[in-house]
């Protein structure tokens, strides 16, 4: 399965400025969050990236993409109809091909040589099916993420066959239907904000949006739950971390994570120790 296109959703009206925030990346260079996210895709040999934006945001986003601007396509989500609707705006761009999908308010770090998106794309190519990245997540974070029910693929510790997907479940819902054997108590497999999806997803989105009453805003999780019934769909436990820039202290946590993984790690650690010492005094 060839994966040459990527789609980044960044049209949320309440979060449209998040990709424009400045962070210091692992190489010590100041970049907009959007540039860091686009670079995550480009490192996977992605040739074209489509960014779904709110009306009027294209100019600011083009500038924020830095050197990757020429590789970007922009599509406006004219009506604020939610995440799934935003993703569907890329149907023409994806052109019945599988694609990498990232969200515009997360940045990622990796624990290995390969970046998070590279890990995911390699698995999707090998398995020739849709694969969503997941991360064991504490129960108190369930209100922020879609969560999967899954069983381990025999012989593989980091790959799961997805059985269901629920959007932001309550702890009681998760305990009843989303427990995954092998995870420690109080943890669930939550979506990482990164997927490789086949064209079937766009078909399911089109049907869902056609049947949906006006004014409703669908989420992606029910579409992914339907995908389970259509074809093989895997979850990959990511060797990395996701950082949601849109939550309280999200930018701070993301910046610390990038710094501690990067070229300035020792300098940042020294400054943190000095800051803690001063506070202790």
UniProtKB/TrEMBL annotation:
GO terms for biological process: UDP-alpha-D-glucose metabolic process. SUPFAM superfamilies: Nucleotide-diphospho-sugar transferases (SSF53448). Residues 5-240 form the Nucleotidyl transferase domain. Pfam families: NTP_transferase. Keywords: Nucleotidyltransferase, Transferase. It comes from the Bacteria. GO terms for molecular function: UTP:glucose-1-phosphate uridylyltransferase activity. Its EC number is 2.7.7.9. It catalyses: alpha-D-glucose 1-phosphate + UTP + H(+) = UDP-alpha-D-glucose + diphosphate. InterPro entries: GalU_uridylyltTrfase_bac/arc (IPR005771), NTP_transferase_dom (IPR005835), Nucleotide-diphossugar_trans (IPR029044). Belongs to the UDPGP type 2 family. This is UTP--glucose-1-phosphate uridylyltransferase.
């Amino acid at each position: 399965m060839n994966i040459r296109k990527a789609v980044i959703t960044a049209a949320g009206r309440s979060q449209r400025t998040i990709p424009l925030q400045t962070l210091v990346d692992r190489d010590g260079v100041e970049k907009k969050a959007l540039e860091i996210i686009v670079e995550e895709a480009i490192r996977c040999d992605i040739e074209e990236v489509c960014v779904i934006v709110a009306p009027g945001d294209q100019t600011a986003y083009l500038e924020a993409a830095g050197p990757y601007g020429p590789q970007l396509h922009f599509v406006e989500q004219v009506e604020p109809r939610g995440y799934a609707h935003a993703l569907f705006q890329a149907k023409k761009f994806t052109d019945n091909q599988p694609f990498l999908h990232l969200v515009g308010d997360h940045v990622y770090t990796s624990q290995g040589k390969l970046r998070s998106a590279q890990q995911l794309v390699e698995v999707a190519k090998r398995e020739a099916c849709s694969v969503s990245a997941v991360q064991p997540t504490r129960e108190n974070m369930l209100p922020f993420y879609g969560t999967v029910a899954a069983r381990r693929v025999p012989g593989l510790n980091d790959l799961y066959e997805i059985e269901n997907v629920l959007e932001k479940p309550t702890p009681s819902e998760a305990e009843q239907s989303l427990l995954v054997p092998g995870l420690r108590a109080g943890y669930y497999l939550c979506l990482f904000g990164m997927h490789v999806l086949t064209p079937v997803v766009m078909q399911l989105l089109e049907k869902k949006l056609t049947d949906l009453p006006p004014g409703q805003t669908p989420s992606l999780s029910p579409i992914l739950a339907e995908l389970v019934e259509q074809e093989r769909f895997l979850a990959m436990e990511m060797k990395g971390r996701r950082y949601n820039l849109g939550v309280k202290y999200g930018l701070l946590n993301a910046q610390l994570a990038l710094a501690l993984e990067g070229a300035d790690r020792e300098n940042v650690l020294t400054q943190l120790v000095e800051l803690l010492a001063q506070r202790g005094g």
